Amino acid sequence: MERIIAVNSNCYHKYPIEDAIEGIARAGFRYVELTATKGWTEHVFPSMDFSYLCSVRRRLKDAGLASFAMSGHTNLMDPARAGDFLDIIQLSAFFGCGYIVSSVGEAHLADRASASDEEAAARISALLPCLREYGLALALEIHGEHGSGRRMSGIVDMVGSPLVKINYDTANAIFYGGVDLADDIDACAGRIGFMHLKDKAGERKEWNFPALGRGCVDFPMIFKKLEEHGNRCPLSIEIEFGPDGSRDIGEADEAVRCSREYLESVGMAV
Asked: How does pLDDT run across 170-188, given as a tens digit for each residue?
């Protein structure tokens, strides 16, 4: 069974989706995770003109890219954002995605709304009918206070649906959770349904997420762990660079290309 390896368009934060499509396709990838994160990277977004969204869909097809997932971070703890997330679900279906990725809280907006894990599980459970209607699986990202696979496993278990799994972000588990990746992945491998391949350089709390192979994350160990647990979840490359993103579009293109070369060097077919 082939494992999907994609590129998150958030690697092109600050740049138009057209640049992301061109760079990802030129690097030889076949799958893309589109980003629709409010106030951060709105490569596609429900408020955009329908004809423009259609043009993006055509551009993806012409470039030979399948938009298999949507990064649609929304604060699932905040009832006021429920309508926003339903819009993102419908946008995901419009682009033919099978996965929608969100943190439990807000990923990038200054949003303090929070709730207990039990309440979060109840709110996520309320989304299940809509996820079924549009044929989507929800991947809850390791992020913020939910910074480890162990912590996120509790919410996933309370929801108790095959439509809700963990999006294991390999750098966030270090940056937010401070975990040993091998131990943490062992603890939650059966609940991982999606993985962001993100490298980490510098000090633990330094915003430094370079091209794959340029940081400290032991990706061969991670791939071995997934195989040991029989986990064939899709993988999506995310490169966030420093606090201001890449220096220019050339650096973003080069990082995506280098990440492909690194994956191939460790035996992963793109």
From this structure: 999 999 999 999 999 999 9
